[in-house]
Amino acid sequence: MVQKMEEKGGSHVNRKKGGIITMPFIFANEVCEKLAVVGFHANMISYLTTQLHMPLTKAANTLTNFGGTGSLTPLIGAFVADTYAGRFWTITVASIIYQIGMFSLTLSAILPQLRPPPCQGDQVCKEADTGQLAILYASLLLAALGSGGIRPCVVAFGADQFDETDPKQATKTWKYFNWYYFVMGAAVLVAVTVLVYIQDNVGWNWGLGIPTVAMFLSIIAFVFGYPLYRNLDPAGSPFVRLMQVCVAAFRKRNLDMVSDPNVLYQNEELDASICLDGKLLHTKHMKFLDKAAIVTEEDDIKSPNLWRLNTVHRVEELKSVIRMGPIWASGILLITAYAQQGTFSLQQAKSMDRHLTKSFQIPAGSMSVFTMVSMLSTIALYDRIIIPVARKFTGLDRGITFLHRMGIGFVISVLATLVAGFVETKRKQAALAHGLVDKPHIIIPISVLWLVPQYSLHGIAEAFMSVGHLEFLYDQAPESMRSTATALFWTANSIGNYVSTLLVTLVHKFSAGPNGSNWLPDNNLNKGKLEYFYWLITLLQVVNVIYYFFCAKIYTFKPIQMHKKGGDSSSSEGVELDNKV
After folding, report:
1. Please, what's the largest Cα pairwise distance for the chain?
2. pTM value?
3. Which residues span the membrane (predicted)?
């Protein structure tokens, strides 16, 4: 949890640390992290299948497992940063761990003995042995751990550099977020174009070595900027407070609930550091948790044992997190659908004519550039056109609520996988017409641009749903947990990747026929039923949309009483109404 700088004796303000001068050092770290993650993942299935000779299904599951683990570790990073190390040291150590993983993976691409020998003619390719796979998995695990320390901290650490209490800097935090997303988007575009092209046409040693060297230089730059940073000390983990409420409520489970919520425990001094903007008001939901705030004769109200007695604000923090759960979970299946771009969609692209001109063909791993361009274009269009127009009809500053924004993204994602199934049908028809069903290594004379709609629709869906999801988590999370909101977002991504792994495994197992047929064959998509798999995901997403609309309709926004500068409080009823669907 971030504390006010004034609480540190004003030393941070007096030294006038932070500000825009720190941005190059912070952005350098973020750019290289994105170059590494996207540069590795965008084309990694090609490396696994062509260099390590993995079967397609095993390679796809390896990637989704890596993506899932890399999206789960931000919870660990957020916990370490908030509780023990602070953001600067968490980012620094995590970057070094990431660097080690990148170095070992690059080394495996350079040294021939760390990968199986090349295939010779029609000879069956030898798959990577246990030792070679161990190096791969260790490298991916280190990269996932490193990414977990960078992702949840770098955004908040950058925002920490601007003092919101300084009128001259009050608006620069918002500019920072715009710069952050622009720089991140630019890094992703470079990764899916330049790096993927180098990997396919120059070599994997250069394709992996360039982001490895860049990451090393970014660590030096980030650490070099230490004297300039405004560093905020860790002030305890919000997860501990949530656990304290659970334990206190359980210990007092046999008490009768009080009829008047005003007699529940309040302690503004105790909560001062975790509700700087305003305190949460009591709600009637989940009354069993209110027992954690019932004062008994055994409780010391001046110096309470927080494992036995908690304030209403702390109880409401837990209620807010629980209420967010169903909406948060709805984002999982979108990631499951999105994950196919890096696996089966990429394999589709490799089998199609990728020539944009006679002399240039787009690398299969660069197809995600259409996703990025459509996503960034949609965000710009949303900010400049949709919001001003919607504002005239809704009266809301944000144009439409984040719940509406998420709903639009879900619907578009359904269209993306539906279209993907029809495109796969057309691709296989082209293979059949040209007699290439049994020749998976020969390019089918059908343009790869047929895949653009599904890639673009996924990008548009992400611009609506993913950004709305982040906005929802930040707005509805307790104030003290906003620094972990990004970690919760990445956790949904993690589970989405694991669901993809489970789904691919089950479909591959139960669609297997006695004659060797399979919806998701290992070596020849032309003989598979990939369109059925896409339509299965479409059906699951339709069910998810219905589930989401139900959860959004019954969702209760957190009630908060805002603090005035003079020390008085004002009700947030207007703010709450502004958020209603």
Report:
1. 84
2. 0.75
3. 96-114, 134-158, 179-198, 204-229, 360-382, 402-422, 488-512, 532-555
